[in-house]
Specification:
single chain; 494 residues; alpha+beta; Helix Hairpins; 8 helices; 13 strands
Length: 494
């Protein structure tokens, strides 16, 4: 299990599924809330419409016992000011959530006109005044908060209504309802309160259906998302698996000439494959260079060691034939070669130069001192680096120039912007353009320029360029004004 979820493919599938699941849950909750709110509001509107219809009949002069409430399966109550139920739906058996739980109305005596009144209009006015008084009394009742502070005129229906939730049983069927409360001033009878219910069954059924659809559809949709993500991720990561398997085979076979497959796309995987192949190419070049270095070093070391051994063996058998000068020369040559190899190994290991300030002009004069035919024209500039390594660079350049010069070698130190420029020129034959990069490779000698007997092992210029690169500089070769070679060393100023 841990191995399965340790893969990028599994984690991507799980992550995508979780994100979609959270989004679906949030969207489903919003839909259900919106649906519930709209349907509940619709039930309240229907309840208020029914209550106002009954209130309109009362305001029009109908008595409570004359109301037709048995044609509607919705619960309706008409309550007098004193809390007496004066009318209710015929089949109503139980009710809760309204002003009274009574379901059987009490008969009210017919309104009696006041003495001295001669018309229904006068009765209406008298009852209206009575209604005003009753309405004022009702306004003082904290239970009638909808009409508090407002006095209804005879035949007037309150503009405001209140909504409550409750339940009712009609003809043996119990259901939840949304009740609307509307007050009306009945001429000659006072203020009546009408309660009418709007059924919530449609809302409950719709919400239940929506929940069922979501409970069934969401898992199916999540399954589809997980499957599609699994397939798409697998297809996207297939080249990565190809790269991994090829790298595993390269590691097992140690064949650095092989390359990983590069997809024909322009995405991150394709760039990864190209970068991997570039890394393999650089690694192959480095390994080949190391192998050639070891082979060349072994070959270079073999000659002075064999010569020294031969001289010692001859001296052991015939002491009078000992060539002491030759033995010393071979020993010095061997010592220099070992020092060069050690410095190259340190450079290859990534050794960084110290930040010591070095006066390039002073260093150039120091390395040129005691050399025949070498002149120095230098300005004092300081660079940061290793004094020993920079001195080695100048010494190698001077050794190379003297080896190929006919008569003179010149050293010039000047400033060019933010860099110190050191130029070592000779009046020899120069370096052919085709060989100007090859001479900086290790153990490379130009056939017509040097010989092993003259002391060149083919490492001096390679060491000089490597040291220059480690100091953030460059080393190049050009044509000298005198016709020979001009080596130009550029180093950043301190």
């Amino acid at each position: 299990m841990s191995r399965l979820f340790g893969s990028v493919r599994a984690r991507a599938t799980l992550g995508a599924t979780l994100v979609v699941a959270v989004a679906l849950i949030a969207a489903g909750a919003a839909v259900l809330l919106s649906l519930y709110s709209n349907l509940t509001e619709q039930a309240g509107t229907e309840a208020e419409r029914s209550a106002r219809t009954v209130a309109a009949d009362l305001a029009g002069g109908k008595r409570a016992d004359q109301l037709s409430l048995d044609d509607d399966d919705r619960p309706v109550q008409v309550v007098a000011e004193d809390g007496t139920l004066v009318a209710a739906s015929e089949k109503l058996e139980r009710i809760s959530g309204t002003g009274t739980n009574a379901v059987r109305p009490q008969k009210q005596p017919p309104p009696t006109p006041e003495p001295g009144t001669g018309s229904g209009d006068d009765d209406s006015d008298d009852s209206g005044r009575s209604g005003d008084d009753d309405s004022d009394d009702s306004g003082d009742d904290p239970g009638d908060d909808d009409s508090a502070g407002a006095t209804l005129q005879p035949g007037e229906i309150a503009e405001e209504s209140s909504i409550t939730d409750g339940s009712a049983t009609i003809d043996g069927d119990q259901a939840d309802y949304r009740f609307a409360k509307v007050q009306v001033e009945v001429p000659g009878q006072g203020t009546y309160t009408v309660y009418a219910g709007g059924p919530l069954a449609a809302e409950q059924n719709a919400v239940s259906t929506a929940q069922t659809v979501m409970l069934i559809g969401f898992p199916l949709l999540l399954g589809v998302v997980a499957g599609v993500t699994w397939l798409v991720t697998g297809r996207a990561l297939r080249p990565v698996e190809g790269i991994r398997s090829e790298m595993a085979e390269i590691t097992a076979s140690e064949d650095l000439s092989r390359r990983v497959p590069e997809p024909g796309t322009h995405d991150e995987v394709a760039r990864l494959a190209r970068t991997t192949n570039e890394t393999l190419a650089a690694l192959e070049t480095s390994v080949d260079r190391q192998r050639r270095f070891v082979a060349d070093a072994s070959h270079e070391l073999r000659s002075p060691i064999a010569s020294l051994r031969t001289q010692l063996e001859v001296a052991a058998a015939h002491p009078e034939l000992l060539d002491l000068d030759g033995a010393v020369e071979d020993t010095v040559r061997l010592q220099r070669l070992a020092a060069d190899l050690l410095l190259l190994a340190r450079l290859d290991a990534g050794e960084r130069p110290t930040g010591t300030r070095v006066d390039v002009a002073e260093l150039a004069r120091e390395q040129a001192a005691g050399r025949t035919g070498v002149s120095v024209d230098a300005e004092s500039f300081e660079v940061a680096g290793s004094r020993g390594q920079l001195g080695r660079v100048l010494a190698n350049l001077l050794d190379n120039a003297q080896r190929h010069a006919r008569s003179a070698v010149t050293v010039a130190v000047r400033r060019d912007g933010g860099r110190a420029v050191v130029q070592v020129a000779d009046d020899g034959d120069g370096v052919p353009r085709a060989d100007r990069e090859r001479i900086f490779e290790r153990f490379v000698r130009l056939d017509d320029a040097r010989s092993r007997d003259e002391g060149g092992a083919g490492l001096g210029l390679a060491i000089a360029r490597d040291v220059a690169a480690r100091h953030g500089g460059t080393l190049t070769v050009h044509d000298a004004p005198a016709g020979g070679a001009l080596f130009e060393l550029r180093l950043p100023l301190a």
